[in-house]
Amino acid sequence: MLKSNHVLFAMILAVSLGPKGAQAQDKLQPAEVYKRCYIRMARMIPKANDPRLLRVQQGKHSAANACVSLFESAELGRADIMKNRTSAEAKSVLKTFHDLHQSWFSIKLSAVNNPVNYLHRDFDEPALYFTRAAFAPQVEFSSVVTSKNGLAGVRDPAIQLNDFAANRIMRYSQNLPYANPTTLILAYVQHSEVPRTPAAVTAGLPLQYVQSNVPRRLEQTTELGELVGVRSVSSLNLPNFSFGVSLNSSRTAPEVKAAIVKMGQTADVNAHLGGGVLGSQVFYLSNANLNIGVFAEDYKNINRRISDKVFTDLLCNDLPSLTEADVRSQVKVNSPYTFQRQSTCLQCHASMDEMAMVYRNNFIFSSASTRQLVGKAIQGVGQFPASPSATLFALRPPAGQLHFRELISSGNYRRSVVRSDFSNLESLGQKLAGANDLYRCASKRYYRFFTGIDVDLTRRADSKMDRYHQDLVLELADKLKSTQSVKSILRDIFSSESFQTRSYLPARLK
């Protein structure tokens, strides 16, 4: 059950010292407990004159409280900027946790592999939702799936792209006299409507459009340096933006043309899609399986890879979690899709595909052609306005269903089936925030980070030792859900027998 070398160490220690001797030798002194958490969080050894260490040694402070105090030193204050922005120790603590949160995401690179995207979008964004929730006291943990804003890191020193030669990264055309070497120019294609003919008015669509190349300077780019805070992503509104869709092509469906015209009145290419990480353009770009300009097409073409990553990266729930009995009623023997005819396939597809329905209106755009000479293009995520009367799948309302078995619960240790409908990313985020696996997953990961013990939450543990760790993680999860505070469960981890013993294994259970 436990993926750790601590068990072997504990057995050797117990044999060499005997039961009572091992128990006495295995328990850490308060100062040792503080040093353990300090090394883990600050990634350095505390100085001999460390004020917290001295108070612990003098019996004026418990080790757990001292550890929490160290965590609090990295808290975000006003405008989600570090209170102790000049403290190297505090910045190291913030970095440690942010690096941890980054490790929770299995893919961190843009699917379109465009270097300019990393200059324009902060690809730390998914992890920043967790970092802000951990260190901003006023932000609830559930915000990681309910926030309505895109995020970017505030870094110190705040080096902007125009502070160094942009042409070291990219080369502008010599025919672009208004672009200097320290300017990042965004190239985008806008559409302008040609005066309509009577036939076009009758059809409700213009007959043709004239595309033009319009450069725009990107004032705010990804900051470089040490992370010291989190900011909301600024809007980038582009008038008459075509989203890279050709309005002249006969291959572009009239419904799509009409939607692009409606969207392009004023398009915010930095728009957040709703639901915290779920609606992060970076999370979408990192995990999408539909490439630039490819629209969802029922179960044939749908971003099921994104929904799969929601289960694994946010919920620690590896598919399949459903049983054949759970999905047998969803089998469609006459379906054109093979996987819908078999219950074994539906064990995964019933979870992935139904969640992916919420992304049906979204698509990856490029602001201009790769052959564009005016500036550089970026990629992002566009969203068609949904219409119940639309005939195209990608334009219909994004109704979806959350269907999976949760990880085991405290008490009955069963995996309950969750099955509920939602209509957008915001409502999906609310359902995940009200369920349990978001909190069980985070508690399991924090516990592993501080103890090295990876607790299995898919079935009831067999041994007393395994059950001890399993029960503790489940208790942490319940507390995280009720308090919405990472700090509250860290205090419990620092106070636990496992963290305060040399082998991370309570002697009374050996």
Strand residue content: 5-15%
- SS elements, strand count: 10
> Which strand order does the major sheet show?
1-4
Main sheet makeup: 2 strands, antiparallel
Helix content: 25-40%
Number of H- or I-type helical stretches? 17
Mean pLDDT: 87
Which stretches are low in confidence, meaning pLDDT under 50 for 5 or more residues running? 7-18, 194-210
Q: How many angstroms separate the termini?
A: 15 Å
Rg value: 26 Å
H-E order: HHHHHHHEEHEEEHEHHHHEEEEHHHH
Overview of this structure, please?
The protein is an alpha+beta fold and 510 residues long. It is 38% helix and 13% strand. It has 17 helices and 10 strands. The strands form 5 sheets. The protein has a two-stranded antiparallel ribbon. It has a two-stranded antiparallel sheet with strand order 2-3. A two-stranded antiparallel ribbon has the order 5-6. It is flat, with a radius of gyration of 26 Å. The model is unreliable at 7-18 and 194-210 (pLDDT under 50).
Q: How are the SSEs ordered, and which strands pair?
A:
Blueprint: H1 6-26, H2 30-42, H3 51-57, H4 63-72, H5 88-103, H6 115-120, H7 125-135, E1 151-159, E2 185-193, H8 198-203, E3 209-217, E4 224-232, E5 237-239, H9 254-263, E6 266-268, H10 281-287, H11 304-315, H12 324-327, H13 343-356, E7 362-366, E8 379-383, E9 400-405, E10 417-422, H14 425-434, H15 437-451, H16 464-483, H17 486-495
Antiparallel strand pairs: 1-4, 2-3, 5-6, 7-8, 9-10
Helix pairs in contact: 2-3, 2-4, 3-4, 4-17, 5-7, 11-13, 15-16, 16-17
